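Q: Give me the 3D complex with zinc ion.
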Amino acid sequence: MTAQSPNDQTYVGVELCAGSARAALVSAGGEVVARRESAAPPEDPVVQVARLVAELRDASSAQVAAVGIGLPGLVSPATGRVIISSDLPSVMRGDLRAELAKATGLPVTLENDANAGAVGEYAAGAGRGSRDMFYVTIGSGIGGAIIIGGKLWRGASGFAGEFGHITIDPEGVVCVCGNVGCLETVASAPNIVRRTRERLMRDSTSSLSRLGLNKNFTAADIAHEARGGDDFAALMIERTGRYIGTAIATVVNLLNTERVVLGGGVMEAGQLILEPIIREAQRRSFQPNFESTQIVAATLGPDAVPIGAALLARDAT
Ligand SMILES: [Zn+2]
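A: Here is the predicted complex, encoded as structure tokens.
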């Protein structure tokens, strides 16, 4: 009988969202072995995660060594507790890490979802091969994470990388964080819809847009119409890219990371959004910094957070 080497170990990574949980069994090298998803209505996250972990353990003969969770919130590095989560308040009740460890019988690591996504892309996606990377995820909210020399840069309180809350319009609308005019208030998926609706109401040039035919359109619908040649939808995506690029220019000037990786649902608009982001970042940043920074789309899609969470669990054990 041969002893099992650490490389045979696997790790479960879970992305907890408001409406669902997505889990993957991940090898020590960052490859996905199996996936499970639970689209159940919001329930006790401990029950939900324990069930996904059990399903993934049944799916493979490999031994599971630890569980990593990526969630939309801030996790205190001192206590391991979730101290802020406006999207998923249930994770703030009690000591989630201890309860999950008890329910699964495995060591558990909790991490902010943007940080976990960054670790996933850095190890197994669009960040591979770079030394320093800035990661942005743009979806229902906007998150960011900094990796310097292969390590997450968490900052003094553990909450570095709050890219969505960079001020982009000092006279804009109030953000969930209390500030006025954060990037998130113009470029998150719900805010792209809000801006598009407002413009449809007041701008006669939008009257030809197909978006006016559908009352309940989403940011994905706007991207879809833009790809289909709808000029108004394309304009809204392009404007959004310019807002994001303005904020990226600040990051390029400040950190000069080798790579900036952009992920999240809004980036599914592809080149229609990536091109204005790069153009605006170039226009507004210091040239030597811009020229040494590659700005690219993420490649792991919905696997980024589960892979990153699993690898953070690997590194913690
Ligand atoms: Zn804010």
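A quick observation: The radius of gyration is 20 Å.
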